[in-house]
């Protein structure tokens, strides 16, 4: 079994060499030394099934004893690095499919009691009990650091039924008993009290195997600001639903009775329930009032002045690359939807509506054509935000628009239509 798992780890999880900066802190930034190789959907599906099979053993909590079996020990650290770099690269905005599959893998690993119920043919209604305390402590940073990163990136979800189901499953894991266990572990790392000696040994061995300092990570302290941003996004969706219902549901309302309205109302109720659970898990005070990021007021009058791009100062709506990272990490009170890229438009991050390999290919073609015709890059040598904003508009060849899925589809239709009609 150990040889089989080591082979799977080498094939599935060691495709990227993951490093942390700084190296020994739990909240360090994660990156890869070489070019990032994203996992395929088949690898993610196989990994999820393998984890469910391993965790379906009802004796998993006993495996965390110092004289335990090597099954979980062989997969723990590689899985942690795999999920860390996965969540850092596969966000809901850039790669929603991989993000959902990574989230399913993490949620399956966080609740072995559900896997045991599934293996025994029982209804998946089991929750955390004290018998799984050893497992939780031996995977402390899975329950704190990784889950915090998952909540951070959840702000970019589409907020459909699938997203709500995933968030509901995620927050349901953190029962009051589990949250209390994590709080005791944090207290033990903070002031050396809160855990029994055997429990403390399990936690310290987990930190030493991961090469981390004995520093606690608290969901209610280190990730509460990110959870508050998620509450803001939930409030935004609640405010947006009535407008979406009145506009996009017009035609369904003509042919149906009241299905669209009831569906929208159920989504609003689910968002309200999830907001309450989020407050409980991340210890968000009741005095915190979520702020919707809707800032567009209804258009009552129109003038050409409203189309003037200089009516808003650029520094009020644009961030540097460092600022984008701060917004993504939850360090700034700003919605990721309002972040705009600054710099060479050819080099802007790949969006979810673009085909990655076409972006890279068209970048090389555009740069070659610009060099051939002598079009200079006005952004060359510009490092600061002020320099990039002040760059004048100059003509350059940028074929990246062809990498958009919609544009690429229309070009292919035009090409095939021309081919069939002419030949």
TrEMBL record:
Main localization (coarse): membrane
Membrane topology: Single-pass membrane protein
Membrane spanning residue stretches: 401-422
The keyword Aminoacyl-tRNA synthetase appears for this protein: no
One Pfam family matching this protein: mit_SMPDase
GO molecular function terms listed in the Swiss-Prot or TrEMBL record: sphingomyelin phosphodiesterase D activity
InterPro entries noted in UniProt: Sphingomy_SMPD4 (IPR024129)
Gene Ontology annotations for the cellular component aspect, listed alphabetically: membrane
PANTHER family: SPHINGOMYELIN PHOSPHODIESTERASE 4
This protein's name: Uncharacterized protein
Organism: Thraustotheca clavata
């Amino acid at each position: 079994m150990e040889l089989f798992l080591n082979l799977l780890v080498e094939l599935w999880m060691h495709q990227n060499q993951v490093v942390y900066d700084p190296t020994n802190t739990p909240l360090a930034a994660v990156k890869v030394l070489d070019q990032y190789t994203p996992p395929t959907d088949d690898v993610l599906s196989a990994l999820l099934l393998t984890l469910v099979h391993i965790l379906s053993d009802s004796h998993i909590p006993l495996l965390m004893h110092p004289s335990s079996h090597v099954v979980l020990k062989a997969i723990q650290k590689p899985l942690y690095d795999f999920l860390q770099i996965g969540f850092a690269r596969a966000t809901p905005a850039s790669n929603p499919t991989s993000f959902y599959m990574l989230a399913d893998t993490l949620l399956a690993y966080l609740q072995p009691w559900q896997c045991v119920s599934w293996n025994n043919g029982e209804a998946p209604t089991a929750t955390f009990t004290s018998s799984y305390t050893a497992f939780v402590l031996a995977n402390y940073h899975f329950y704190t650091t990784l889950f915090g990163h998952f909540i951070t990136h959840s702000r970019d979800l589409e907020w459909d039924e699938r997203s709500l189901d995933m968030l509901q499953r995620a927050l349901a894991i953190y029962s009051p008993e589990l949250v209390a266990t994590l709080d005791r572990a944090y207290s033990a790392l903070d002031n050396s009290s809160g855990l029994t000696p055997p429990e403390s040994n399990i936690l310290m061995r987990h930190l030493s195997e991961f090469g981390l300092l004995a520093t606690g990570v608290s969901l209610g302290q280190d990730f509460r600001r990110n959870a508050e941003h998620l509450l803001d996004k939930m409030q935004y969706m609640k405010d947006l639903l009535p407008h979406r219902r009145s506009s996009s549901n017009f035609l369904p309302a003509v042919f149906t009775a009241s299905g669209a309205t009831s569906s929208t109302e159920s989504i609003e109720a689910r968002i309200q329930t999830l907001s309450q659970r989020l407050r409980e898990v991340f210890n968000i005070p009741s005095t915190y009032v979520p702020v919707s990021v809707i800032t567009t007021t209804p258009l009552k009058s129109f003038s050409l002045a409203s189309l003037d791009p200089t009516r808003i100062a650029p520094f009020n709506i644009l961030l540097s690359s460092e600022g984008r990272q701060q917004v993504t990490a939850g360090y700034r009170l700003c919605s990721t939807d309002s972040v705009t890229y600054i710099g060479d438009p050819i080099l802007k991050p790949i969006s979810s509506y673009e085909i990655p390999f076409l972006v890279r290919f068209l970048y090389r073609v555009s740069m070659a054509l610009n060099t051939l015709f002598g079009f200079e890059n006005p952004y060359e040598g510009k490092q600061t935000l002020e320099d990039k904003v002040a760059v004048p508009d100059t003509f350059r060849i940028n074929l990246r628009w062809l990498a958009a899925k919609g544009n690429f589809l229309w070009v292919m239709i035009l090409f095939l239509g021309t081919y069939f009609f002419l030949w």
